[in-house]
Amino acid sequence: MTFVLYGATGTTGTLIAEAAVRRGHRPILAGRSPERLRPLAERLGLDWAAAATDDPAALDGLVARAPLTLLTAGPFTATSAPVLQACLRAGSHYLDVANETGVFEAVYARDTDARRRGVTLLPGAGFGVTATDTLARHVADQLPGALRLELTVLLYTAGTSPGAAANRLSIAAGGGLARHGGALVPARLGAGARRVATPAGRSSVVPLPTGDLSAVHRTTGIGDITVSMPVGLPPALARLLLPLLPRIAGRRAARERAADRPRTPLPPADPARRSLIGARAVTADGRSIQAWLQTGEGYAYTAEAAVRAAETVLVGTDPGAHSPGALLGADFALDIPGVRRLGTEPAPSAPRT
């Protein structure tokens, strides 16, 4: 299978290119820099093409070369819209590995356009949100009528790429968000910080405004959703200090410093470490169910998940804008090496301290 891989020379893009080749595909490696694309393409024996996201004519020519474009270049708040628009013009499927709520909402808003053009739009084809959203679908399917869903994400990565660091700052700069009554509403960053029990022990976590807030709602229809991740602070201190983060992250200089960090290969992953995702669904009368998903290192999971998601779309899916859980199914992640779902069972009440 052939698809355009835009952002191929970044940390995530290169891992996806390598995974695609291992699975017998020949992606067209794309991005802004011929100097960086050429050696990667030569190493993998692939075609390449350079095009800037602010050059509509070049983008149109690029995405027209294949039936699907997978976007891995961030910040997605800047790159998603022009690549998505080019895909709609060309009648090409669009996937990305974004995890920004605003990107998801913008993609979902193009559902009618995608159906008219006969193409599939799938944001969040990486760790966030294929692992989280498919697990959310699993627990929601086990507890019909759930009104609240809590996700806890303990992500292990061997390092942090410049692009990922810049994307995290972009998310933080927007401040807190929550899903209440089906709507996205502003929330004080740090509110809801608490200690939770996980298969790896107790951890301090804090709700964060990730794309899961959009994808999980689209998949399950559940109106109240939180997505929490570890924070290296006691909950009381997190509630005090994290409201200051949007002011710092919103500074353009901070985001530029993160994005301009030298690109270095990720160190070898620790084979003993795992990523964990928990999903807990709750009904109005207090019944609840929870499950955990265990995966390997986050970048490696993203590479495998993104390629497999592209395969699914290229084989044939309904046109429109989709969430991973709805399009790929509750068991999608279980086919990825090193992934297993831990027991699904009634959940104890989560203490808040």
TrEMBL record:
| TM annotation in the entry | none
Region of interest (Disordered), ranges: 253-273
Positions with biased composition (Basic and acidic residues): 253-263
Question: What domain of life?
Answer: Bacteria
Stored Gene3D superfamilies: NAD(P)-binding Rossmann-like Domain (3.40.50.720)
| Coiled-coil features, chain-numbered ranges | none
- Cite the Saccharopine dehydrogenase NADP binding domain residue spans from the record: 4-121
Q: What is this protein called?
A: Saccharopine dehydrogenase
Native organism: Planomonospora sphaerica
